[in-house]
Write a structure and sequence with these properties.
alpha+beta, 3-stranded antiparallel β-sheet, 1 helix, 12 strands, 21% helix, globular
Length: 131
């Protein structure tokens, strides 16, 4: 029995639809969180960026689209939005979740919303699945 072209196309479409849905869901989940393994092999996930310090400890931003960066003392600090280090090594972040930050022509940070210092308190460092 020969299958016509329309039947063949419907079969391919029926197979591709679930695959595309799974790929979209995986991509969305990855956009919402970052995860990294720490030196113990535990997976640490946050709602924003994750960073590893020089000892292999991992900390992630607790905020959706927040940033995690190393301070001048190699400590991981986090913000609600994007972060930037000044010339003296201080890290400032936007107060808006996912908000932008740039340096002006004098090297000072300019943030969407307002600027605030990045802090350890804005980070999470618990293994995935423990909350």
């Amino acid at each position: 029995m020969a299958m016509n072209r329309q039947g063949s196309e419907r079969g391919v479409s029926a197979l591709l639809a679930p695959l595309l849905l799974v790929l979209a869901l995986v991509s969305a989940a990855q956009a919402l969180a970052d995860c990294q393994k720490n030196y113990k092999g535990e997976v640490i996930c946050g709602r924003g960026d994750c960073q590893r310090d020089r000892y292999g400890n991992v900390a992630c931003s607790a905020y959706l689209d927040g940033a995690a960066v190393r301070s001048r003392t190699s400590e991981i600090v986090c913000g609600k939005g994007r972060c930037i280090a000044t010339s003296d090594g201080e890290v400032y972040c936007s107060t808006v979740p996912g908000g932008a930050v740039v340096k002006d022509r004098f090297g000072e940070p300019r943030c969407e919303g307002a600027c605030e210092a990045a802090t350890v308190e804005n980070c999470v460092a618990e293994p995935a699945g423990t909350r």
